[in-house]
Specification:
Two copies of one chain form a homodimer. The first copy, chain A, has 14 helices and 15 strands. In chain A, the strands form five sheets. Chain A has a four-stranded parallel sheet with strand order 4-3-9-10, sandwiched between helices. A four-stranded antiparallel sheet of chain A has the order 5-6-7-8. In chain A, strands 12-11-13 form a three-stranded mixed sheet. With 465 residues, chain A is α/β, with parallel strands linked by helices. Chains A and B meet through helix 3, helix 10, helix 12, helix 13 and helix 14 of A and helix 3, helix 10, helix 12, helix 13 and helix 14 of B.
Chain lengths: 465, 465
């Protein structure tokens, strides 16, 4: 039985989604004003692993991850660079998608704030009508005093600790927060019933999650620093509007990435951009390394740790490759010794250890310990040339790698066509230069590799035989 | 909730294995005296699909499939060909493994009778000691009258219908069956406490299943024609020896392969050897075609049906390929229309239809109907260039294809290295001939494809960047 640590209850709870086998998951995505850094990647890979584990448990996950493409930081960055806020947003959104896809993180829906302004206005209008929000000269604010459960997620019960957006002077209370901000001169704006302006930060997540996942859903994820005020505010807005409680059943938060013990953050200036990291390490090494720490723990970044991860993944791949070859040789035994029978059931037991670890709030370090047990068993299989042990270890690893997605050597399906096309291109050039021997050599070798060539007048077609 | 049709109870039963998540499955494999034919492949693919569906349901299956490598048919065939029985057995065992692996059917343990003679003798000895078997001049026989539940699996209650091995004259009753057969002159034999001889057919399955799966296990599979007497006898032997009941919880039987309405069988002379079929059709076409019929139904073989399957799989692959490319383009939308949101939930609903079909005694034709629904949704995604719809359809298809294993184009992982090596070889030749422009072109294009070249004095090394 899967248990997850729910920030809302501060304890491990059995995981029971609202409408199984559906799991609706919303994760806070990036504010696209700068390069994504390794701390971001940590959160996104963590929730991708959670998603993929839920999938092998028989759930089907619809995963929404938003993009904050309008925000003070974006506006400031645009000013600094003398470009439009949209240029900044588009540039870093494209980078984000590219890096995420490389890390095999592909949320199902990636809504952007600026394409949901109408939905956001409708949400705010409804809050005003229901008496949960008020309009001032500077914008629209959520009236925290009207919502009786404020502080439930963060556990912060002292109102003095709730203060936020303290620079705004016309709020009723220091802990009220903006739903709509009237534009200052030179700032981007959208029309609204209140003033030309833009949405506050928190309202976007309440709006876009409900649009795509409904008025209640199963998992809301994000980094730990979003608990207060962002997620606290999201809950207040959404429960106020929809009259449901709890709005989200499970709140999951990932721990910080640290460097020399300090939280990695733009403001501290100790960030490692993902794009830089990817120049030094294969994406699978990065994904592997990120998966080795429990998602709720702090994770310390160091170049040494990545070097170790690289070596570890290389060793893993060597074993997996050898196991694939052992099975491909295909020499099943006519009977197994007791030792071999035991190994088969041991593989099953290690596979269960993987599940037990993951069932315990997605404990990936313990899950990796089980994988390493399987790999040791795999190495014993290779020493003893045991087809059966190799096969069952691979059977377990294939299941497990639907979650980690790093164990098996990457597929190069796409590549192969490019290489064949390059060979055909080279051959075309050789034929022009009447170097028939080399052209024929290419044709013959390709034939052996299962590729047939068909020379038309000027072009050559190829196909897999 | 998965329900399976249990031949033992003659009804659909909820599937509850003895020690979940473990599922222990034994399937009757081939008697290796001739080419495996398409009727055999049907049974083996059917149980492979059952295994792989159980795996995506969260079970872990240990699958044992025996090889009968000593038997009257093998002895007769050897006599006909003037070779040893072992030559015949080895030849067709090798062919069987090769064909099975091509069809992606890989049982975890493949025990052979002749490598379990000691275990079989021990089993028979125990039956004699317990009073369930008796020794005559011609061998050892199971005393059916001693076992009170005979006929339970086949439902044959009339003792007159139980007659078997009627050519043996020294049995107590015509329905007793051989556990050990004394060798006639010229026949192969093994030493035993009773006479030099060989095991009867039925005892091997009781012996080898219990050796690898324990005294009770979850699923026993095989073709329908094995229900009586083979499986009936297996139950009698095993329950008699182990004192457990039921010995096997679920008995699953696959329907016949027919040709023009008649059962495909060697004796009727209407078989299609698998090895011939594979010359005409890709293995994936054959696996696909076999999966389109419900495993318990009769399945009519026709060349036309295979041609149709070939076309159907081509169409499926075209859609899947295009979906992969659509997602690879990677242009997620900033917001989705209601129609697109509906399509995402429709993909989920079709994925559930697949599960509902499979949960209903592995109803693959209905499961394929759900897949075709997904593919239609995929084609709509392609028309509308909807990344999100394409992505969720692929998410569902990837899960489903862990069972069918035919939807996605085959991996060509191994190939890519051969093509790169061919390019390196061609370039070496070009450098010898001082055709620097073409040699450099190859270097540059390979670089773009992520392959770095390092020229040493005479050799060139390459690596993926």
């Amino acid at each position: 039985m899967l248990k997850v640590f729910n920030t809302l209850s501060r304890r491990l709870e059995p995981f029971k989604p609202l409408e199984p086998p559906l799991v609706r998951m919303y994760v806070c995505g990036p504010t696209v004003y700068d390069h994504s850094h390794v701390g971001h990647a940590r959160t996104w890979v963590a929730f991708d692993i959670i998603k993929k584990y839920l999938m092998i448990k028989g759930y089907f996950v619809i995963h929404v991850q938003n993009i904050t493409d309008i925000d003070d930081k974006i506006i400031n960055r645009a000013k600094e660079e003398g470009v439009s806020w949209k240029d900044i947003a588009d540039k870093y959104t494209a980078e984000y998608f590219d890096l995420m896809a490389k890390l095999k993180v592909m949320p199902n829906i990636n809504p952007r704030v600026t394409e949901h302004i109408d939905d956001i206005i409708e949400f705010i209008q409804d809050l005003i009508e229901k008496g949960y929000a008020y309009v001032t000269n500077s914008g629209v604010y959520f009236d925290v005093d009207k919502y009786p459960y404020y502080g439930q997620l963060s556990g912060i019960k002292d109102k003095k600790m709730w203060s936020q957006e303290t620079f705004v002077k016309d709020k009723k209370n220091p802990y009220d927060f903006a739903l709509w901000k009237c534009a200052k001169p030179g700032e981007p704006w959208w029309d609204s019933p209140w003033c030309k302006g833009r949405p506050g930060w928190h309202i976007e997540c309440s709006t876009m999650s409900s649009k795509y996942l409904g008025k209640q859903f199963d998992i809301h994820g994000g980094a730990r620093d979003l608990i207060f005020p962002h997620h606290e505010n999201e809950i207040a807005q959404s429960e106020a509007r929809f009259g449901v409680r709890p709005w989200v059943k499970y709140w999951l938060h990932s721990g910080y990435m640290t460097m020399k013990g300090e939280k990695m953050s733009k403001s501290l200036g100790n960030i490692v951009p993902l794009i830089e990291l990817m120049k030094k390490y294969d994406v699978d090494v990065i994904r592997y390394w990120l998966s080795t720490s429990h998602y709720r723990s702090e994770m310390e970044f160091s170049w040494n740790a990545l070097d170790e991860a690289k070596k570890a993944l290389e060793r893993i791949r060597i074993t997996v490759d050898a196991l694939l070859k052992e099975v491909e040789k295909g020499s099943p035994k006519g009977s197994l010794s007791d030792d071999e029978i035991n190994k088969i059931y041991k593989a099953y037991s290690l596979r269960n250890s993987f599940h037990e670890a993951m069932d315990n709030d997605f404990n990936t370090p313990k899950a990796w310990a089980a994988v390493h047990g399987l790999l040791r068993l795999g190495n014993e299989a290779l020493e003893g040339e045991s087809y059966e042990t190799a096969l069952i270890v691979l059977q377990a690893l294939r299941e497990i790698d639907r979650v980690f997605e790093v164990l098996f050597p990457p597929q190069r399906t796409k590549d192969v066509e490019s290489f064949i096309e390059l060979l055909v291109e080279v051959r075309k050039e050789l034929r022009k230069r009447k170097m028939w021997d080399l052209a024929d050599m290419i044709r013959n070798e390709l034939d052996k590799l299962g590729v047939a060539l068909l020379d038309r007048s000027s072009e050559t077609e190829w196909r897999f035989k």
